[in-house]
Fold this protein.
Amino acid sequence: MEWMVPFVFGVGALAPALHTRLRVWSGPVLALVPAGIALYAAARQPAISDGAVPEFRASWIPSLGIDWAFRQDGLSNLFVLLVAGIGALIVVYAGAYLREHPRLGRFYAFLFVFMGAMLGLVTADDLFLLFVFWELTTVSSFLLIALDHEKEAARKAALQSLLVTAAGGLAMLAGFILLVDAAGTSAISQIVLQGESLRAHASYPWILALILLGAFTKSAQVPFHFWLPAAMQAPTPASAYLHSSTMVKAGVFLLARLSPALGGSDAWAATLLVVGAATTLLGGLLALSQDDLKRLLAYSTVSVLGLLTLLLGLGTPIAAQAFVVTLLAHAFYKGALFLVAGNVDHGAGSRLLSQLGGLREAMPWTAAAALLAGLSMAGGPPLFGFLAKETAYEAVLEAPVGSWLLAPLVIGTAVTLVFAAIRVGLSPFKGELGEAARDAHDAGPAMRLGPLVLATTGVLAGLLVGPAERLLVAPAASVVLQGEAPTGLALWHGFTPILALSLLTLAAGAFLYRHRERVVAAAAPGMAFERRGPAWLWDRGWELGLAAAARGAHAFQNGSLRRYLVVTLGVGFAVVALSLPLSDLRAAGPTADTPIVGIAASLLVVFAAAVMARARTPFLAVAALGAVGFGVSLLFLMFSAPDLALTQLVVEVLTVVLLALVLPRLPRPAKPKPARAVAIGVAVLGGATMAGASLVAMAGEPFEPISRFFEERSVIEAHGRNIVNVILVDFRALDTLGEITVLAVTALGILTLLRRRRPSDAEVQA
Amino acid sequence: MSVLVAPLGIPLVTALLAAAAPRRAGVQHAIGVTGAALLFVAAVRLLLHVHGEGVVAVQMGDWPAPFGITLVADLLSAAMVAVSAAVGLAVAIYACAEPRETIERGSFVCFSHILMLGVCGAFLTGDLFNLYVWFEVMLLASFVLLVASGERSAVTSGVAYVALNLLASAFFLVAVGLLYSQLGSLNLADLRLRLDLPGAREAAGPAAAFLLVAFGIKAGLFPVFFWLPASYPTPAFAVSALFAGLLTKVGVYALLRMFTLLFPDPIGGPLVAVAVATMATGVLAAASQSHVRRILSFHIVSQIGYIVLGLALATSLGVASAIFYTLHHIVTKTNLFLVGGLIARAGGGESLARLGGISARGVGLSLLFAIPALSLAGIPPLSGFFAKLFLIRASLQAEAFVAAGAAVGVGLLTIFSMAKIWNEAFWKAAPEEAPDLRLGRAAVIACAGLCVLTVGIGIGAEVVWELANDAARQLDDPQEYLRAVLGDGS
């Protein structure tokens, strides 16, 4: 079990190379891997249905309690069977469907990465480990949707689905962190035992909301459903696999998995019922008017995903049973129908219902699979879909709350699905030859296998309902319920009201189909919701947000160094000014014994600074700057630091001379000076802040400075009489080494720059 | 003693040799790669030493602390030196595939090793003024690299870079002066002891604020990060990758050091707000760019926000998360800039509008971009995922819910940015015939090496987290640091 995921990833990594060797055989050979996993899971299933739970646990990141932990209970193994079993069929199918595609090798690689991630997701027994796989399915879905990435529509759809599901995923991660914090463990098998204390936990509302966001985006619930129809840009095998049978079920899988921990509260029930009901209804209604087979299937998938959510919201035993049966039935028939759509597209060259018809003779095998799968989708006996519908009806009719609303809603939606089923399963094949069917041909064996097997499984599961219930449904449902699952799934319960409703649904669907033109026309305005609904809001939101961000970024980082300097200085001094302790400031006022020379020098500095600020010509500014420096050296002199004063003077003179030499050679600034008021304000703020900071620093009792040590040891230990020199070359020689490096770099840098200039000058002359 | 001096001596000697040796690219690279490899070995040795035996210090010139200059390495310093040396080695190897004239005329090997000297010096010094010196070394070396390796426009951005960074240095210097005039010492450990005395820390408030501003500018915090996006997109790719990995992180390191060792009292709300603003403004600006290195540059700002958030939370978990994030970020960000160079080479530029069709050039380059990009976007099980996980967890536990929410939202925009580069440069059909330039084997090896590190920090997150956690513990309780610097008498 623990080897399963890495193994599948490994196969994915080798798949492209394998494909270049095996060419047409790559599909069947690669399919052996998921087929083997499916067999392995199937072999374990009897024991699991008897209550065995194979486990594996190894520490991964002990400080976070993250384990490399897997668990195969009834729910997990059901999904393993689906993911691996359907996966095998898909790989065979894709090998033929994409035979001419230049990127088939990569397709295999992405598909196996997805498969491994999905297998990990459904078996992980650690929330964070589950999240790892969750995100990997998102990434692989992104890569698969845009397999034909030269098409802009494909890239857009891939990005949209990535962003929607990643947004939910990130929210979910936060929810997981809170949940793990509340439960004290990240082991899912432990968390589900703590339902009561978790529901009473203070952060329960947040946990619930955040995790639901993740599940809803992944499982395409309203209002996040729009990415799924758009994702139909993916090649059909990927759509069949990811976007109907497996990945989109990850969200409801998570809800089912966590329902013992988070379910059972009013908030849980209310949210899931409302969102589920809205999704199933909207999906069903929007499916009505679709002309493109894949989009039609996508909307009906949305509808079923909504139903699954709704069933989990009910939380009753019969609803849990209905959840599992519906999920299974849907995986079979929807997978089959997507592959049928692929075959039709392949054989007849179109996916548009308005162009299709009369294909039964040209494509007998595909037509047979379509008929069976369509019948299951419609809920016709004796197929598995029939059982799904009956149990779902039973669940909503016996719903603890709101059955008066839920039952009609679910039944009404079922009618739309019957309509959709007839259109997909029947109409392309019966009647007159459509305009796209002139030289249609059936798909080869590899492309027949998948739809036929899936469709037949629906029949078999319906006929063998007893074993199917005991082996597959009940073990999974009991995990959701954390208790005994209901039994008694059967094709025939006698003449019950539910049977009547079921037949009525079929009849109503058929009636709609008779008037299909009017139905399609009547439902068409629904697409306005899609054009101006959540999808539009989402896209516009990004567009406007990014435009605003661009404007903001451009205004902030506008390229004006002068403004950068003003802002940086202003912010810097403002931060310091805010930190000045005012009480200390008042205590540290100037004292009376300040010598008159000091005051005079200070006044000189202030005056020169003012002149510089008001200077109209660069030369005056430079001269004033020199005067400032001169005043400072006077102050040094006054505090008996003649060496410093001398250095300062030399530096000032050099600076002024250099500036005076360079300034005439610089280009004049073309733009007028910026707001002087702001600059002067910042300058005054800076001066005041510096003064305040100095006063504060000098206010306290001075500590014994380390310079005493230098005075004492300079002669005795360092053998030097000039303390400054000794500090530079001995006490703090490392500083000097650094400073020498700085000087050397400067010199070398200038040299480098000059050398760099020369060839360009030569070029100019040449 | 040699464990601490080697990380300074090796880059210095390498730089001198490179300056003295003939300017031919082959000779230069031989020196550069050897020096970088030796530095990496020395850095790993230092890390192992500190990990095994605790904080290590050496008094330069044998003058006892606090009178001379102390070099000191705790786990934070050692880890920073190690990861910096690793990306330094990668860049040195990558540079072998850069155009000859960049290397020869720009004296890349010499100046890049001076830069490494400054970086290592900053990480290892235990002295405030000495830290200032190393910042100056870094600043000058990076300025020359920036101006010498780029186009003519690099001079303009170089001026902005140096002017704004000199401001930061001035603020820093003022802080050093204030602290010395008040406390009479420069040794960090000694300063800590003096600041612990009654009344001292209150009076040092303005100095602390100056330090915050200075390193805030160096780290690239909002609203003073102007210099970063102005300068990073222009120089040669090897140069900007080195900058992207190291420069801001030295600022971050200094913030971590100052506001745990000297001023351990939490700054709290205001710094959290600044961190969130940095995260948000950086990522929003990044999402709206359409030039590879401009996107990546603004993302640096955004991620500095994440790191500073960890510090601002002022919990041990927060600081540990910040350290983990920093280590991940240095590797990943350097790599993205390096791969940006490969993209430019493969697609003939950096403007997304003109790039395209790179995925057709084979799976190798796609993977080299995808791994660091996905890591930056926080996709598990890569390093960036755990970095974000730790930080969000730390924020939630510190009940900084807004910050946690911002971290999540910024994560989504990061995914968007990376997907945008992918969509445009890799997936879109090439708008025009791209010059089919060779990527250069050395460059590919360097990027692949960093990819392995990124995956390793992800899969082996436990090891790195332990390290970050222990480093944070040393910062939280500085006794070991103080003892190592000042002796047992402290």
